[in-house]
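Quick sanity check, Aspartate aminotransferase family protein:
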Amino acid sequence: MSSIGSAARAHLFHDGTVERYRDVLARGVDRVARRVGEVDRPATGVTPEALAPLVGAIDLDRPLGDTDAALDELHDVWLRDAVWFHHRRYLAHLNCPVVIPALLGEAVLSAVNSSLDTWDQSAGATLMERRLIDWTAARIGLGATADGVFTSGGTQSNLQAMLLAREEAYRRMVGATRPARPEALARLRIVTSAAGHFSVQKAAKLLGLAADAVLTVPTDADRRMRTDELARTIDRCRRDGQVVMAVVATAGTTDFGTIDPLPEIADICTAAGVWLHVDAAYGCGLLVSPTRRHLLDGIERAASVTVDYHKSFFQPVSSSALLVRDGRTLRHATWHADYLNPLRAAEQGIPNQVDKSIQTTRRFDACKLWLTLRIMGPDAVGALFDQVVDLAADVWRRLDADRRFEVAVRSQLSTVVFRHVPPGADPHLVDEANLHAREALAASGAALVAGTKVDGAHWLKLTLLNPETTVDDVTAVLDLIAGHAARYARTAATPAPVG
C-alpha cells in the first residue's frame, strides 16, 4: 500500500478513528458557534465579483492537510459571508432558523450515513420514516390507507404528485378506447391558480405534457383561487376533449401566504372525479398549530399533499415529504431491480422506501424531525409557527396605517407584501425606487427582504419565519427601506443641471 493510501485511511470514520471524529467535529462546531456568536447582520453584502476570485484561486488538487487550515479557508470563502437565516433581520425567503434537536439529528444521520433505499441499508430508519409519514398523514386526516415518502423539497413532492396523477388519469382512460400514451399526454391538463408555485409548470414539462398543459385560473381579491373559474375551466376542458388529470390547490402561496378555499375546491374535484393535490409546503406548520389548524380544513380530502418541514417545522434543508390518500398509487414510482428490490423481497414483505420514491440513494432526513418531536414535541413547534403568524399580522396592521407604504392582501400565514410609495411619484418611479431600496438594503447587509411582482408592478416582501424577530426589528428595516426609496425618488426627480 502506498504511503498516501495508508495516510488516507486515517480519515475514514470507523471504530479506530472515533477520537479523531470527536476532535474534528468539535473543531467544526466550535467555528460555527463562534461565527454565529459574532453575527450582527444577516449578510455582509458581498458581491459575486468579490468572492469568485477567492474561490477560483483554490487548487483543489493540493490539499491543505490540516483541519484548522481548511476551516480557516472555509471561513474566508463561505462562513464569513454566509447568509444567516437565524438573524432577526433576515426577512426575505422561506428560509427558517433551525431548532437544535434537528441539528443533532443532522450530525447523527450524516455519521451513520444510512441510505433510505432498502431495509438492508437502513433497518430501523425505514420504520422511523414510515412512522413519521403515518403521523403526518394522521395530522392531515388522510385516512387508514394513506402513505408517503420523504423528499428533497416541495418541487420534488409536486413533481411526484403530478406523476401519480398522470398515471391514474391514464389508467382511467378505459378499455379498448384508451389512447396511445403520446395522444393521452397531449390531452392531459393540470389546473392551478395564478398564485400557485412554478414547480407545477416545471413538473408538467418534465412529465412530457403539452406546452399548454397547465391552466391557471385567476385569484380573488385575497389572492385565493376563484372556485367559479375553476369549475368553468374543468367544464371547458371536458367540452374540448381534454382530461383534467389534477387540480393543484395551495395552502400557503409563496408570495402572499394565502390559502386557497380547500373545502370548495375539494367539492368541485369530487364532483368532477379529478385528483386534488394540495401544495402545503409553506402552510404545513398549521398541522401543529395550537390555534390555527382550522385554516387547513378541507386538506383531508386531497389525493396528495406536499409538506416542507424545512419551512415551517424549523428543520434544516432538506426535510420534506409527499403524502397520498391511497398508498397504492405510489406504485407508479416503483421499479424493481434485481440487485436492490427484487420481486422476491416484496413477496416476503420486507419493507423498503425505494418502491415509493423517485430517488434511489436518499438521506435519512426523517431523523431530524424524529428528534425534534421526541425532544420538543409538536405543540412546541406549532407554538413557534404561531408566533411568526402573529408577528406578520401585527406588521401588516402597522404598514396599513403607515402613509409611506402601500400594503397588499393580508396573509393568512407569515408573509407581508408591501411597497414604498414616494409622494407624487409615477408608477415607473415607484417601481424603480422599491427595486433600488431592496438592492441597497442587501448591499449594506443590514437586512434582507424579498421582492415580487403584483399585477405587473414591483413590490417588496417580508417572509417572517423567525420567532426571535420583533416588531421593532421589522420597523427598523422598514425605516431603512423608506430612506433608500425616498432618496432614490428625490434624486430621480431632480432635473440634471444644464451645462
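Posting the structure with no commentary besides this: The longest strand covers residues 243-250.
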